[in-house]
């Protein structure tokens, strides 16, 4: 009994030592801005200094591979594809989770429990979490819970892409199709990065055109390409 008590108190002390010793770093920006590449670079840098790391991404994102984070330029890294984050310690194994120093999360906008998980990892468990995700959707609305974790983050990096029309810095993602679902997963076939000028100009064209096209389904497929060119 005495042993059990001392084990429990040692666990409690060990747990308390971890409290508040973690960190949260956020990498955000539009599509094609190098978020996954930047996340992988930081993860590899942690590995190079001997840290134990794990990568997680949403199981909704199966664009390139089911069990790896792959950047748009095709570089991959093994990861866990999960429907939510809070189940990660159970799936990964609690002993293995306890030994982790760093957790990388890609496509973080798809996780509804992002805020809760980041609090747990950094505040309670003393680990570093590096989060990469879209800050806004194709209508420039806040996407998922990525912006919610800014108040609890140590650092926030907003990356930019290059505008596909003019080559200037691009901060927004333009959808090329008529689909209005917020979570439409796709790559360069569906989305393109654009600067403010080309976002605003194309949205002005898309809005009135969409009302006409909604009543003419046969023409839907060809509409946006014509508008964007
Ligand atoms: Zn532009």
From TrEMBL:
It catalyses: thymidine + ATP = dTMP + ADP + H(+). Keywords: ATP-binding, DNA synthesis, Kinase, Metal-binding, Nucleotide-binding, Transferase, Zinc. GO terms for molecular function: ATP binding; identical protein binding; metal ion binding; thymidine kinase activity. Substrate binds at residue 191. Pathway: Pyrimidine metabolism; Purine metabolism. The active site is at 107 (proton acceptor). SUPFAM superfamilies: Glucocorticoid receptor-like (DNA-binding domain) (SSF57716), P-loop containing nucleoside triphosphate hydrolases (SSF52540). One of its GO terms (biological process) is response to stress. Its EC number is 2.7.1.21. PROSITE patterns: TK_CELLULAR_TYPE. InterPro entries: P-loop_NTPase (IPR027417), Thymidine_kinase (IPR001267), Thymidine_kinase_CS (IPR020633). Belongs to the thymidine kinase family. This is Thymidine kinase. The lineage of its organism: Eukaryota, Viridiplantae, Streptophyta, Embryophyta, Tracheophyta.
């Amino acid at each position: 009994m005495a042993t059990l008590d001392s084990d429990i108190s040692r666990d409690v002390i060990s747990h308390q030592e971890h409290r508040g010793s973690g960190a949260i770093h956020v990498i955000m920006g539009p599509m094609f801005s190098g978020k996954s590449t930047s996340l992988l670079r930081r993860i590899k840098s942690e590995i190079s200094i001997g840290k134990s790391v794990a990568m997680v991404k949403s199981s909704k994102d199966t664009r390139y591979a089911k069990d790896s984070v792959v950047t748009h330029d095709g570089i991959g890294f093994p990861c866990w594809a999960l429907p939510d984050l809070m189940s990660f310690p159970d799936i990964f194994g609690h002993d293995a989770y306890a030994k982790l120093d760093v957790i990388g999360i890609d496509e973080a906008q798809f996780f509804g429990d992002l805020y809760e998980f980041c609090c747990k990892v950094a505040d309670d468990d003393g680990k570093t979490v590096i989060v990469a995700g879209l800050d806004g959707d194709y209508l420039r609305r806040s996407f998922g819970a990525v912006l919610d974790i800014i108040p609890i983050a140590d650092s926030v990096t907003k990356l930019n892409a290059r505008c596909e029309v003019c080559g200037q810095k691009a901060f927004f993602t333009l959808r090329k199709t008529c689909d209005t679902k917020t979570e439409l997963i796709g790559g360069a076939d569906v989305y393109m990065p654009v600067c403010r000028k080309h976002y605003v100009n194309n949205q002005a064209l898309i809005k009135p055109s969409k009302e006409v096209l909604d009543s003419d389904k046969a023409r839907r497929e060809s509409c946006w390409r014509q508008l964007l060119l």
